[in-house]
Amino acid sequence: MSSGPATLTDRKARVKQQLSDYLELTKPKIAVLLLVCVAIAAYCASNGQPDVARLIHVIVGTALVAASSCVWNQCLEVHVDRRMNRTAQRPIPSGRLSRYASALFGTLLGSVGISYLLATVGVMPALIGALTWILYVFIYTPMKQVTPWNTTVGAIAGALPMLMGWLAVNPVLDLKAVALFAILFFWQFPHFMAIAWLYREDYAQGGMKMWSVVDGSGTKAGIQAVSGAMALLLVSVVPGIGQVAMPNVFYMLLSLLGGVFMLVASWRFFTSRDDRTARQLLFASLIYLPCQLALLVILPSSV
Ligand code: HEM
Ligand SMILES: CC(C)=CCC/C(C)=C/CC/C(C)=C/COP(=O)(O)OP(=O)(O)O
């Protein structure tokens, strides 16, 4: 008699666990910031007067395609993820989800996502979505075990969604569109070099050729972080050039300030190369990007 309710409770708990595992496969925390970038790109592309329906469509479509790429990334990396502390408890390596079911889930998300983009915002965002998927899943993912230049390829995949957001509302890629892509591209170097340093033992154990692994002194990771931050500082100013009738000085000054903040955090990491400065740099990167995105919304069209 008493086994009935217990079984039902068990079943409910299992379903809840499976739902949370499928959600975890999509790397939702990264997706949230990525989708904010897509929304800001669409907003900037429409000069602050976005077609709300198209904006929502490109966010939904990109979310589905990005989620699919993250699921497939984990299907392909299961043997590596199993060897690393940070990833060993993920749903596939821990055995909570099968690789087959996950691959089906990823394929479904991707097919629906690309079709949705095609139907709602047109060929270009859908095409870039598909290319980004291929770049992330079939080029970046295996490349991690071959060469530390994998991060450069990963950063292209990470930044391309900016162009999906832009092209969903504006067919012409101008200097500002290129600058948005460049901001997200260069931001990833300080962001990831901090992570690559913090998890260097994990990455080495998983056979991942990150800069922090191939050069254990951290010098090369530091150089990548500082170079990325320098380039970020320069490109972040560009959207302020000639946006209305004249350069937006407030935007440019605040962007410079943010750029200096990232450069100082990167420089401190480069000179110290310890966990404390790496953690500070990772934290700085996660503060900087939302602030820079907010600046893009608040200032350029207000002068
Ligand atoms: C080369 C490209 C990138 C790599 C290799 C990378 C890698 C990672 C890794 C491994 C983490 C987890 C750190 C941890 O567990 O402590 C992380 C965190 C994070 N990343 Fe990235 N990332 C990249 C690009 C991006 C992009 C394009 C975005 C969004 C615009 C992003 C947003 C985030 C966020 C919000 C977190 C914190 C969430 C969390 O704690 O899991 N990343 N990144
Ligand atoms: C539209 C579309 C397809 C967008 C995809 C964009 C995307 C998911 C970008 C994330 C960039 C990136 C390289 C993250 C790290 O992955 P990782 O595999 O190094 O992280 P991990 O070690 O935690 O698995």
TrEMBL record:
Pfam families: UbiA
GO MF: protoheme IX farnesyltransferase activity
Catalyzed reactions per annotation: heme b + (2E,6E)-farnesyl diphosphate + H2O = Fe(II)-heme o + diphosphate
Keyword Signal (UniProt): no
Organism: Bremerella volcania
Localisation per UniProt entry: Cell membrane
Note: Carbon 2 of the heme B porphyrin ring is defined according to the Fischer nomenclature.
Annotated transmembrane regions: 30-49, 55-76, 123-141, 153-173, 179-200, 221-242, 248-269, 281-299
EC number: 2.5.1.141
Domain of life: Bacteria
GO cellular-component term (any): plasma membrane
Taxonomic path: Bacteria, Pseudomonadati, Planctomycetota, Planctomycetia, Pirellulales
Job description of the protein: Converts heme B (protoheme IX) to heme O by substitution of the vinyl group on carbon 2 of heme B porphyrin ring with a hydroxyethyl farnesyl side group.
UniProt-listed GO biological process terms: heme O biosynthetic process
Record flagged with keyword rRNA-binding: no
Name the record gives this protein: Protoheme IX farnesyltransferase
Keyword terms of this UniProt record: Cell membrane, Heme biosynthesis, Membrane, Transferase, Transmembrane, Transmembrane helix
InterPro entries associated with the record: Protohaem_IX_farnesylTrfase (IPR006369), UbiA_prenyltransferase (IPR000537), UbiA_sf (IPR044878)
